[in-house]
Amino acid sequence: MVLTGSDVAKHADEKSCWVIIHGKAYDVTEFLPEHPGGEEIILKYAGKDATEEFDPIHPRDTLDKYLEKSKHLGPVDMSTVAQEVKKEDPEEAERQQRIAEMPSLAQCFNLHDFEAIARRTMKKAAWGYYSSAADDEITMRENHSAYHRIWFRPQILVDVSTIDLSTTMLGTKVDAPFYITATALGKLGHPEGEVVLTRAAHKHNVVQMIPTLASCSFDELVDARQGNQVQWLQLYVNKDRSITKKIVQEAERRGCKGLFITVDAPQLGRREKDMRLKFTDTGSNVQKGQKTDTSQGAARAISTFIDPSLSWADIPWFQSITKMPIILKGVQRVEDVLRAAEAGVQGVVLSNHGGRQLDFARSGIEILAETMPVLRQHGLDKKIDVFVDGGVRRGTDILKALCLGAKGVGIGRPFLYAMSTYGQAGVERVMQLLKDEMEMNMRLIGAAKIEDLHPGLLDTRSLFVHSNSTPVDSLSLTTYDPLIVPAQRLK
Ligand SMILES: Cc1cc2c(cc1C)[n+](S(=O)(=O)[O-])c1c(=O)[nH]c(=O)nc-1n2C[C@H](O)[C@H](O)[C@H](O)COP(=O)(O)O
Q1: What is the pLDDT of residues 430-461, one digit of tens each?
Q2: Which of 246, 394, 259 is CA-nearest to residue 328?
């Protein structure tokens, strides 16, 4: 039986709550108290079409996976559903104008260009979520500026007529020593979400790390893989270990080649831009004293399942449920790298989650410089693969990390900004720009292939001194957006 809009509209409160998603009606009444994002956001769309709000946050198979079949009420005749009359939003009209005036892709010459364009053209909620970091965002800025405290010591008269950027990461031969790291909610920035990254990764033979909190479903992302393209899985460990076991074993069955367990997020950080935007979400009524959790933002709303009890004692269990290489993502001091090697995991990512977790955590590159000499002293530098991420915006950043001994470098926001502004072509442009920068800079430092890179090509004496004046990073500072507070809030 086909339902009508008025059939659905009769169920518009917490006693009986129906919503329409992609032309089908669902009874979510009993689900309301379990919704990680709180009841309010569902009740806002009770009795109505909630597709537009649902899509950026939820993989397409969410309702099939988590809502029992008896609550699936069947198709709705969408011609009978009253369409929300969108009030003319002057800010949206201005944003569309800025989109119309965007420079051509060919005019983007570096990764900062994409950030500058994203800041001006993305929807506020998307920009707020992607660009935000924890507390005063000191660590996010430190991630990038730490690279400016490392100088090259180039060697001359080396035959650099042919440059080879290829390397292997976890046994996979890749065309360049960087990968697309896990970043949640891809559909906030682009309607297709993370599959855009999957397609670009294939074109450039770069690895994609699939996020647990992707907007796309895991199957959509794996099905979008082409040829012998390699993907890794990033895992937030669920309090319900049976769910985690199912996700890990399904990922291995579907061909993922690495399990990256995120260990720096027992609770997602306080990202104030993201939180603040929750309070400007017209109609969310939170200003009217609703019982919405004031710490809500997209981050908090989607992460209540994460298990804060995760500990070293869990590592043997993970080793018992999968044969995939296990990498701990978010390690922030050499003692834990040594412990990871002792625990028998295959790798670590030295990372502070892009500054989105603990503010005043050190940059990944500084932890790398601390770690590698100690691993070499212990004869462990070949036993465990070390990756690094955070603040990488130039080919020289990648070369510095590789000189210090990283196997590969994860990149997050630049790919999101490029995807959100220019789609797949933008992501591919970022990859090509990085490759071009690396090729030129390898020639200039006198290294023809990745294995020629070594610590002697660097001067890291000031890396550990946080107070010295590093060159003013005017380019990235002009794109840095310290605040999103709608003008009316400033009155
Ligand atoms: C920018 C960004 C980063 C996220 C991210 C979402 C965004 C928008 N999310 S988050 O929603 O939980 O915070 C994840 C995530 O799902 N899982 C994870 O392990 N790291 C997450 N990270 C961290 C990411 O994997 C890298 O550590 C970080 O992005 C590297 O810094 P750059 O952005 O400067 O390259």
Answers
A1: 999 999 999 999 999 999 999 999 999 999 99
A2: 259
CB of residue 189 inside a 6 A radius of ligand 1: no
Tokens, residue 46? 């009770």
Active site residue: 26, 129, 130, 236, which one? Answer: 236
| Residue 343 main-chain phi, psi, to 5 deg | -75, -10
Inter-residue contact 119 to 127 (CB < 8 Å):
yes
Give yes or no for residue 297 CB within 6 A of ligand 1.
Answer: no
Nearest to 47 by CA among 1, 2, 3: 3
Residue 372: Cβ-neighbour burial (10 angstroms; 0-12, 13-18, 19+): buried
DSSP, residue by residue, 341-382:
HHHT-SEEEE--GGGTSSTTPPPHHHHHHHHHHHHHHTT-TT
- pTM flag (> 0.90): no
Q: Which of 27, 49, 113, 264 is catalytic?
A: 264
**Closest ligand 1 atom to 144 CA:** 34
Which residue, by CA, sits nearest to atom 28 of ligand 1?
354
Exposed/middle/buried for residue 182 (C-beta within 10 Å: 0-12, 13-18, 19+): buried
The closest alpha carbon to 195, from 178, 214, 176, belongs to: 214
Q: Is 450 helix (H, G, I), strand (E, B) or coil?
A: helix
pLDDT tens for each residue of 219-230 = 999 999 999 999
Q: Ligand 1: which atom is nearest the Cα of residue 390?
A: 31
Distance from C-alpha of 9 to C-alpha of 25, rounded to nearest angstrom: 11
